[in-house]
Amino acid sequence: MTPKIARFLAEQQPATPCLVLDVDRVEGNFRALRDALPLAQIYYAVKANPAHPILERLVGLGSRFDAASFEEVEACLRAGARPEAVSFGNTIKKVSAIRRAFAAGVSMYAFDSVEELEKLAQHAPGSRVYCRILVENAGADWPLSRKFGTTVETARNLMLRAGELGLDPYGLSFHVGSQQTSTASYEAAIGRVAMLFTDLREAGVNLRMLNLGGGFPTRYRDEVPGIDAFGNAIMHAMTEAFGNALPEMVIEPGRFIVADAGVVSAEVVLVSRRSEEQPVRWVYLDIGRFGGLAETEGEAIRYRITTPHDGGTTGPVAIAGPTCDGADIMYERSNYRLPMALTCGDRVELHSTGAYVTTYASQAFNGFAPLAEHYI
Amino acid sequence: MTPKIARFLAEQQPATPCLVLDVDRVEGNFRALRDALPLAQIYYAVKANPAHPILERLVGLGSRFDAASFEEVEACLRAGARPEAVSFGNTIKKVSAIRRAFAAGVSMYAFDSVEELEKLAQHAPGSRVYCRILVENAGADWPLSRKFGTTVETARNLMLRAGELGLDPYGLSFHVGSQQTSTASYEAAIGRVAMLFTDLREAGVNLRMLNLGGGFPTRYRDEVPGIDAFGNAIMHAMTEAFGNALPEMVIEPGRFIVADAGVVSAEVVLVSRRSEEQPVRWVYLDIGRFGGLAETEGEAIRYRITTPHDGGTTGPVAIAGPTCDGADIMYERSNYRLPMALTCGDRVELHSTGAYVTTYASQAFNGFAPLAEHYI
After folding, report:
1. Is A280 on the interface with B (CB under 8 A)?
2. Which residues of B, range 344-363, sit inside 8 Å of A by Cβ?
3. How far apart are CA A273 and CA B149, in angstroms?
4. Are A75 and B367 within 8 A, CB to CB?
5. For position A240, which CATH number holds?
6. To which pathway does this protein belong (chains A, B) (predicted)?
């Protein structure tokens, strides 16, 4: 938690649940990533947190943007981004969304199927397109692989086809999974797609761009490698694979830029035991899986939690949300421990919750409004 | 799909994704359940769908209401419900919510721990309280058991304590899990809690009410037993357990009342194959797990899907939502088949989506607005 957030929470005591996010930390993370990978162009993954103050700060820093929908394209433009600085990175786009993005000046699009390519040729003619390749997601806490990407063989045919359709066969992309803690996954993926660059050059198509996706991890409850380790591993692999004929490099960080800039302040609604013999206490908060903490599904993302009683004796807990839904349990098997003194009405903090929280929140499940947001 | 919904979709062609819900069907379901269990008082589980036209219709039919939050209490009162007809059925309540509900005249509260009981004694003095007991959820497609309920032994102590604290020890409740397809689960639970009625009577506490929860199933893709089967099984078990000294019976149906009254109309955004060798097509819709279809988590609830090409040759599909999230997959292992002719831009219908869809929808994940709602 940054000193600015600590001060805001102490002075304002904002109603819970809420997210408090320090935009200066966003800038710090952006600069750290740029320093670690100076040759890469950063396209911020807007879906991680599309709040206007974040986008505006990133526009000022020269960031580009990876949009998942036309609504996200619009949010970037409203924040001052030039349309050339926006990539429409979702491989699944409505025709109406492609048309509107193209009309707004967006000229860079992702795809992973011939069907999508044909939609792009028709509704965004002449645009730069890049094909997403399916790679291993081992090492990622929030893997993505089954839904997106195609094989290297299919990608080859699709890039040839892109040219025939009057599109600009710009490059390739992959995604190693979100909250990826292994640098080796990037190295393996780079080696894999680099061969396709060579192969397509021989077939007469000169790709110019490699999009390495995002996935760079944030420190949650457990330690993760620093961003420099990823920068070094990636540059090493790029040089191995491409020598000094490096293509343009694109990265699409979301979590890394905003997660640790935010803290969710929540209230303990109830601390109880199933029965007197059970040592595990159930701690119910006023935010849960349907109030924004969707990434606790399967206990995938394990947030660090602090309380007013830290330092005192702790005991094992299960942690759940405030709704009547049995699926609204955050942690039951991840060995969380919280102070024995914790009680109803206490305020607790969930750290590094600046990414993938606010927009996930259900609009009104069980009648609860989405969490409030404070950008400071 | 009711004829009224079919006509509305054909004539209005509303923008997708949207829910169209026939309020007459809600009335029909309410009446069918009342006929199947005439001795039970129906408390509609507002969380299933809190839309004003639904609540208003149910108020007119004499329904009572099971609210999960103070916001849901308010929604009931706005629709014309008397506060005495509202039960605050969430066992996890903020002190502020208890206070506001009590001030509004709500006098019936659930709990399952001594901590919650003490909150109720302090902030809703003299109220009728009922204790939720943990029972088996086998047979439920959406089980609830780990988060709620206490043991019979603890419940006994809690009901004695309720009287000491000046509360009215009104009854017991259980929940056999949502979309419960086995009548035996109700029978087993009734037998279990009935013994506690006797036991407490001997200890000087006369419980007056048994809350059987909800869970009555809707027909989704697969057949389920009719509501009369549940009515018969429950009445048989009640008579076995209580003879002719039946306590007041409360049921809290949500899904059964509203699910099959609603249809989600969605658009196919993309149909593609991973590679030419793969027979499975990926069908991407403009609604997914984060757009309202949260109950497809783990492929638990399997909606029936119709398309404009029904009757033609079908092939295996995986079905996913429109976001960039790899977890936004509805069905991959449930052997769905859709017509080979299905293509981008087609409108499809997801049936029996009137329950647990609208409020679950994320407020803006990936920039997508929650689905529109039409009550007709």
Report:
1. no
2. 344-345, 358-363
3. 10
4. yes
5. 3.20.20.10
6. Amine and polyamine biosynthesis; putrescine biosynthesis via L-ornithine pathway; putrescine from L-ornithine: step 1/1
